[in-house]
Amino acid sequence: IHRRYRTNQEQYRYNRLSTKMYSDTMFSTTKSLQGNHCAQIFVNNLNYSKFIPMTSKSMAGHALSECFEDVGVPTELHTDGAKELTMGHWKRVREKQGGIRQTVSEPLSQWQNRAESEIKEIKKQVGRTMSRTKASKRLWDYCGVYVSETRSRTAHPLYDLKGRTPIEHVTGDTPDIAEWLEYQW
Fold first, then answer.
1. Is 30 left (phi over 0), alpha (psi -120 to 50) or beta?
2. For residues 57 and 84, what is the distance between their CA atoms, to the nearest angstrom?
3. Nearest-5° angle of CA 20, CA 25, CA 29?
4. How many other C-beta atoms can be found within 10 angstroms of the C-beta atom of residue 120?
5. How far apart, in Å, are the Cα atoms of 33 and each of 37, 40, 57, 135, 138?
6. CB atoms within 10 A of CB 1
7. Less packed terminus of the chain by CB within 10 Å, N or C?
8. For the whole prediction, is pTM greater than 0.70?
């Protein structure tokens, strides 16, 4: 007779990514149809981005677990010093996945977080797309997801990508872009 101990299999549930992810919260002045006021952005250094709408900034830990489920678990996270991005549910989710290393930007140093520049690009492209199609401002979260997914499936002139798309480089799988080509915003 011997005793069997359960192991923490949680860390083996999701794909492991060999990339560093940057994250920050994007805020909107308009409340969306789904009641969202902000979104959590996850970015790596090769222009892969994940846009997750949230009703409040306290939902950042849930957005992190959704990113892990959809994309995978990065080796390292970099955020600013906001409490919702370093403590609470965010910290529990991060530690549950094998203690992912997290670094924090220095105060008043936005250039240290790549998510800041990606937020700027996504906002600019969402604004252009919505004004071109004359869509309601309350659809900003849907358009943000569309823009982020399109940017991740578009080839960029970066040497490290070697002619591949950012999502293909991160996940290792060739994406099916049929739905993105057939339908437009």
1. beta
2. 7
3. 155
4. 12
5. 10, 17, 17, 12, 6
6. 2
7. N
8. yes
Distance in angstroms (rounded) separating the CA atoms of residues 132 and 44: 29
Q: Is the dihedral of CA 170, 47, 137, 30 positive or negative?
A: positive
b/e string for 103-117 if b means 16 or more Cβ within 10 A?
eebeeeeeeebbbbe
Query: Is the predicted pLDDT of residue 82 greater than 80, yes or no?
Result: yes
pLDDT at residue 147 above 90? yes
Per-residue pLDDT band for 23 (boundaries 50, 70, 90) equals very high
Q: How far apart are alpha carbons 50 and 22 in whole angstroms?
A: 10
Mean pLDDT, residues 112-137 taken together: 94
